[in-house]
Amino acid sequence: MDTLYLGERVDTFAGVVPYRGAGWLHLSASLSRCGWSWAYAVVIGTVIGLGLGASKWVAALFEPLANGLRAVPLFAWLPLAIVQLGIGEKPARVLIFIGALWPIVVATSDSVARVPRAQLETACMLGTPRRRLWRRIYLPSALPEIVTGLRLSLILAWTCVIVGELSGTSRGVGAMMNAARESGRTDQIIVGIITFAVVGYLGDRVLRTLVRPVIRWSES
């Protein structure tokens, strides 16, 4: 089955790139897949990390489970994702999400747990309600380390794209490289490697630029 893309007909199966312009189609598919999965990981990972770092009983109950799941290799989730979610887009996004989740959880929980207790007690003495300590104390104090976790998470999400796209997706840089491997196209494999390196570098630079104004106070 062929699809018209930018005036060219491109093969939409198995990641094959026989026509000009299909490479951009695969890149855009991988970027979209990675972006959405990483965004979900940021939200859920931050919430889990805040709970583990700020509450001793939450940490006692769930930290062993979190550490155990964090130790499972991403490839170990691949067969389960395919069996439960089928072949295609859903397992790919779930695998990227799993890879991106744990750096955020660890960075957030560790940084929140290290917030000085004296700082919390002072805020309460000055009239800050406990329900607002998250926004006024925990997040600002932990933000520099959370940003470090976000940077690591983004890079891991992008590297996990190739694992996610082994689940049978027809589009994506990883699917393109897998098809190139089967057909012996070394040139396309090298292009895929360069693409991962360049996009990963640019993504990290963009994220650093966006968050620098928020954590500028910590650099002084």
Write out the CATH superfamily name.
MetI-like
Helical content class:
over 70%
CATH class: Mainly Alpha
The tally of structural domains comes to 1
Query: Overall mean pLDDT score?
Result: 80
Could you list the spans in which at least 5 consecutive residues all have pLDDT below 50?
1-15
Order of helices and strands: EEHHHHHHHH
Note the gap between the termini: 58 Å
Could you please say which CATH topology applies here?
MetI-like fold
Write the CATH architecture name: Orthogonal Bundle
Number of DSSP helical runs: 8
Strand order of the largest sheet: 1-2
Strand runs, count? 2
Structural features:
220 residues, mainly alpha, MetI-like fold, 8 helices, 74% helix, 4% strand, disordered N terminus
